[in-house]
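Review session, final week

We close the course with one last complete record, chosen because it touches almost every idea we covered. It is non-reducing end alpha-L-arabinofuranosidase, a protein from Eisenbergiella tayi with 530 residues. Go through it on your own first, then we will talk.
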Amino acid sequence: MQKAKVTVHPDYRIGEIDRRLFGAFLEPIGGWVYGGIWNPNHPLADDYGFRKDILEITRELGIPAVRMPGGNFTSGWEWKDSIGPREERKKHLDLAWRQYETNEIGHDEYLEWARRVNTDPLYTLNMGTGSIEDALHCVEYTNHEGGTYWSDLRRKNGYEKPHKVKTWCLGNEMDGPWQIHSWEKDPKGYGIKVHETSKIIKWIDPSSETVVAGSSTPNNRTYPDWDLKVLNECYDSVDYLSLHYYHSAPEGDMGAYLNASSVFEDFINTEIAACDLMQAHFRSPKKMMISFDEYGCNFSPQKQTTIGRCGAIDRSAYPEFSSHISRPFRFNDPDAAEPSAPGEFLEALALSSILMTLVRHADRVKIGCMTGGLFVIGSDEEHVWKRAGYYLFEQFIRHAKGISLRPAVESPVYSVKGFNLNDFNQTPAYDNVPFIECCASLDEENGKAAVFLINRNWEEDMEIELDISGFTDFHVEGHTVLHAENPHACNTCEDQKAVMPEEAADDRQENGKIYMKAPKLSLHVIYLTK
């Protein structure tokens, strides 16, 4: 059996972990909203039409922040048509997802849902077809106490007190050629628009923070030069640079799939370098922070690629986009919503690896929004249950608090071949990828610490020596393992315990070290208490 060593010390500090690092992302795609969180015809619908069983289990999970209503949808969304009496709201075509937007769930309902599940809303403003004036009116309507047309209209619509949105996302993936009113060819124009919008937001509410859209994928032809040109116009007025990335791997290639964190690591490091270059350019004392507010991981079949594009997206060879624009518009019936993917254990493990990467960059990455974060909760017409991803997400939300610590890992390694699935999904080769991946946290205020560890070896168990001797005043409170013999196992309504966390039974402790066995493809969380 292969062996590895991990050392975690309370002095190896990275930075403060922002609670919003473990956020989620919500967009009205298919049944995510209509038929997901909202169905007024459901027996458990509350006074707003929200399903109370989904509300309660989401509140129980404790997701600290949700980016809403985010995504491509927002680049054409008219928020003013989504407020007031439902019967008077305007219906529109949603060009992003080829669907009819009825606006039955609108601006106020999204924020009311966030209030009811006790999460911070990260509100996305329309920087595609939307104007600076629209943004001004939206912020005034949302956050101003009263005494103006827009704030009084909010009160007339039933919300006496302001919604108090703290974080405003200024557009979504504006570098993407697929975006409604893309700024792909005019980063300077987008940067100026964001600068002016960010100014007025903070003039209305000085406590607000703003997020500028950076590169939506490292495979864009404009990356990372686009980010530099945008930041050159708005560096002084914004607080975060937004990044998105969906890691795709060739079907069946476990090594490439579980190497998502290496690609995220390179992406984050490049963007931090771009931010720091702009800081030096402006001789500014401010360090730009990162909001990684969309991410995911999946397998993808081999499709068409364009010779010579070298990772840049060629729109004529983007088959998903071509099929997308040819399909008819659809109406999302809440009573006929299709269930989302079941959420395999393997996906949960890959997302854990990505979360570890964000924690290891906690000094600069302050916001993280898992695209499937709300759908770690399974549901059908009558039931809700906890999917495999629920337990991984719960572990980070509950235990990754305080200061991020930098672990030292000595592990057997593997190599990943480079691949080119299509013009949108390409990854270079990686050598010396460690099978063991780790992050750690220290919550000094409450006398707690936690070590998160993954064995991403898909063929062998590993023996691990975990050195925590630096935590001289701490004892081991517990060791939770999330593992499934079948990596494709998933919790369903019929079998809700296919993947469940368990307590490790055979650890051995000696001289400040824990000797443990990590089954192949397993997530471990070791809790320490002072």
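Two points worth writing down before the exam:
The radius of gyration is 23 Å.
The first strand starts at residue 2 and ends at 7.
Good luck, everyone.
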